[in-house]
Structure formats: structure tokens, C-alpha cells
Amino acid sequence: NTISVVGLGYIGLPTAAVIASRQQKVIGVDMNPHVVDTINRGEIHIIEPELDAIVHAAVKKGYMRATTQPEPADAFLIAVPTPFKEENGKQHEPDLSYIEAASKAIAPVLQKGNLVILESTSPVGATEKMTAWLAQARPDLTFPHTHEEDSDIRVAHCPERVLPGHVVRELVENDRVIGGMTEKCSQAATRLYQLFVQGECVTTTARTAEMAKLTENSFRDVNIAFANELSIICDKLGIDVWELIRLANRHPRVNILQPGPGVGGHCIAVDPWFIVSKTPEEAQLIHTARKVNDGKPHWVLDKVKSAVAEFLQENPERNIKDVTIACFGLAFKPNIDDLRESPALAICRNIANWHSGAMCFVEPNIKLLDEELAQHGSLVDQQEAIEKSDVLVMLVDHREFMNSRRLIANGKKIIDTRGVWLIEETRQVPCL
Ligand code: SAJ
């Protein structure tokens, strides 16, 4: 069996490599020649624990290679991005252009008996759309939407649900939702996943599988929004939200997540919009959760402004131009180097655009600041940042930041969006 994985990014590459590690022949396809060359050298272009060794072994043993042009295979697994775009005055419409381009790229090499799986997180109805694009390009073949069980090509949606930072383990261990366009499509897709998945493969329809994935991430978004809203309420009422959550979570049926500076990454802040754009009237709670989480970085910026004002009031001899602000953490969540859609990074940029004095940034997982931030300050270590700054903004609960409360002298202003310094002794382990 030859399996082709189309899109060699954060999901496609680990999936391709894990399948190849089960001694299956894998052809990876990516439009970016740099990505293809890197992989063919046995190297990787993304950061994910354990992935480099698996890719290296798969390429060296000859089970995996990459190309920019699709080639015939038995199964095609599509793992391309599905961002949102602005359309007809609406800001968060799903952008299926990558799925469309991938469908059109593989259509010419499809053969009777092939299986096509859409793994990209998609709005409800996207798998049907993909099938229609394939059918349009290949009128000589039959597809499940027109020819039910007897189609030449099988099509299914099997959304990925791995957690960045734990991808290699979760790819194998997580259960999979397999939504075939027909029952036979589900069975064909299940056989493929059973090559490398130890979790259970549960079958359903393509539309339910699409909605299941969106539901998982919306569930998390809504729950984080609850924690974020609580943190804003508690700030107003003078209550320590971290203690509050710890106490409430002692109830056997309460499990509140952790507040933070906002929700980042390329999944949780995106996927709920796919539900909202399809059913805007009905998706009230999901929409509000998005707004609460997206509003949190602005709230943090206001807190920083107030802290600077307070500092100047307490230190009338000082001028705003010589107030130094230190930001701790740039990544979108703890213990990774991923800055994509990071609320911490957005907050740093907003502070930098507003503040006329010096700034410094601490991010143990990166070596260089981007040009924009570098204009406003430098990357320094934690101790230096604490010593030389007047206002300290904790944005990401990286493990390196734990137990640093004792380094902070009296008189400095603290904005702690993660409860790292406020509850050091009693802090729970960081959330995954
Ligand atoms: N966050 C909080 N408080 C919390 C938990 C998370 O503020 O208590 C924030 C994080 O700091 C981060 C954001 O939420 O900014 C998202 O982080 P995350 O760890 O919740 O999720 P992702 O985006 O890394 O991965 C999610 C996962 N989905 C779920 O847990 C339901 C993962 O399993 C999915 O595969 C992934 O989205 C995806 O690709 O869709």
C-alpha cells in the first residue's frame, strides 16, 4: 500500500512519518519546495518533540519521501490549513481554498479503488464540497455522493485532534472519529487508521465528524472564556481568581480551566468561528466565548497602562520615558516556541506601540526577537528583566518562570495573567 499525505505541516508531517514508521510506503506532497527538500534530507522544518528522529529514520530507511507533485497512491490524506477569511463584510468565514487546491492537485492521479481522507479541521459540509471538486475534475470516476456504496473512490473526514507538543504520542494513542461519506467509506478509512492508531476508531457520518471536531475545540474555548471572564470579575471584586478556582474545583462536578492573557494557537481561536458562520443565530454562547477570549489581550493592555500610571503616582520623580516594562513569555502556551496567533505576543506588540519608555522580553524558548519587537526592546534572561524593570507582565506560565517570585523586590508593579507569581506556593500544575 502506498499512502500519500498532502500538506506536510504540523499535522501532515507527523502523520506521514508515523505511518512510514509502520513500514508503509508514504509519499508526502507539499507545494513548498523548501519543505520538500528539507524532508528528503531527513530533516524537519517545524518544531515538535520526537518528530525529527522519526522523520530521519523514515526517510533513511526509504519508507518516506516528499515531492511537490502528487503521484498515484492507494490512499490520499489531506492535511492542509483551513484558516478563516473576510468575505462579504463578515470577518470569520472559513477559507477552503487550500482544500480545493489539494483536491484539484490529486484529482488527475486518482485511480479506481482509491481512498481520499480529509483531515483538515473543516466546517460542516466541507467533505461533500471536496467530493464535488474531485468529481468535477474526474467525470470518468464515480464518487460517493452520486453513487452511494458502489463508488470508484471512497471519501471520509477524519479530523486530527492531537495536542501540539504531544503530537507523536497522541497520533497513536488518541481515539479517532471516522466520518465516511458512506458506510463503506468509513470502513476503508478505519482500515487505514488501524495501521498506526492504538486508540479506538469510531465511525459516523462525514458531517457529524466535521461537527465533532469543531465541538471539541469550541468546548475548550467556551470553558477558557468562563475562566477568563471570572478573572475579570474577580479583579473588579478584589478576589484572587486562582484561589477561587482552586476552591470551586474541590466540588466533585466542577472543573474550571485556567484564565490567561487570551486564547491563541491556530485551532481553538479559529474553529468555533466555523460553527458561528454556519449558524450565526443559534451559536450565541460559542460566539460570546470567542469575543470574551479575543477581548482579554485588550483588558491586559489596560491593566498595564493603569499599573504604569500607579507607578508614576507612587514615584513622582520618575517620568514615563524612564519606566521599564518587562514581558515574560511570548509563545501561545507554556513550554513551546510556537508564536502563531499568540495573545502574549499581541500584548507585547500593543504595549510596545503604546509605551514610550524601555521594554525587555523574556522567552526561554526562542533565540531571536522579530524585527518589530527588537525595535522596542531586547531579549534578556529572567533575572535581568526582574532587576531592571519597574512593571512586570507575566504572560506565559513556562516552567522556567516558576519559583521566581522571590526575585521580585518590593515597589515593582506586577500584572500576572497566569497566576505564576500570585499563587506560587499553591499553584496547580500548568494545564496542558
Ligand atoms: N488556555 C488557557 N487556559 C487553559 C487552557 C488553555 O488560557 O486552561 C489557552 C492556551 O494558553 C492557548 C490556548 O488556550 O493560548 C489553546 O491551547 P490548548 O492547549 O487548549 O490547545 P491547542 O490549540 O494547543 O490544541 C487544541 C487541542 N484541542 C483540545 O484540547 C480540545 C488539540 O487536541 C487539537 O488537536 C488542536 O487544538 C487542533 O489542532 O485543533
From TrEMBL:
Residues 326-423 form the UDP-glucose/GDP-mannose dehydrogenase C-terminal domain. One of its GO terms (molecular function) is UDP-N-acetyl-D-mannosamine dehydrogenase activity. It holds the Pfam family UDPG_MGDP_dh_N. Its EC number is 1.1.1.336. Signal peptide: none annotated. Belongs to the UDP-glucose/GDP-mannose dehydrogenase family. This is UDP-N-acetyl-D-mannosamine dehydrogenase.
